[in-house]
Amino acid sequence: MTTLSLRVVACAALLSASAAWARDSERVSREAIGASSHRVLCKVYVTEQGVAEIVEVLKIEPRTESDAEIAEAVKSAIKTWKLNPGTKDGKPVAGYVIMSFWVN
């Protein structure tokens, strides 16, 4: 089981996530990660119990004919993860988080 530490994402961070994602992807060499890898940007709603309740794939690059299959596989995988929710005053809170990662 995969565990990730999460923080509640502020609205401004959600708006700037796409621009930050583009900058990061420019810095990573495609050769270093493999020709068949895809960069995936997701918006995930994490409950107070650490369940990924809503998963939205925002972007997949490079674009391919199999984007729909990649998106479904990513959504299915994330929904099986046990996540650490954000906290406020020491108590777990539900919220959205932006995740960016590479998949093969």
Short description:
With 104 residues, the protein is of the alpha+beta class. It has helices at 11-27, 30-33, 67-78; strands at 38-46, 52-61, 86-88, 91-93, 95-103.
Describe the structure.
- With 104 residues, this protein is an alpha+beta fold.
- 32% of the residues lie in helices and 33% in strands.
- The protein has helices spanning 11-27, 30-33, 67-78; strands at residues 38-46, 52-61, 86-88, 91-93, 95-103.
- Strands 2-1-5 form a three-stranded antiparallel β-sheet, with helices on both faces.
- Strand 1 and strand 2 (52-61) form a beta hairpin.
- The two termini are 19 Å apart.
- Mean pLDDT is 76; it is low at 1-19 and 28-33.
Comma- or semicolon-separated keywords:
104 residues, alpha+beta, Fusion Protein Consisting Of Minor Coat Protein, Glycine Rich Linker, Tola, And A His Tag, Chain: A, Domain 2, 3-stranded antiparallel sheet, two-stranded antiparallel ribbon, 3 helices, 5 strands, disordered N terminus
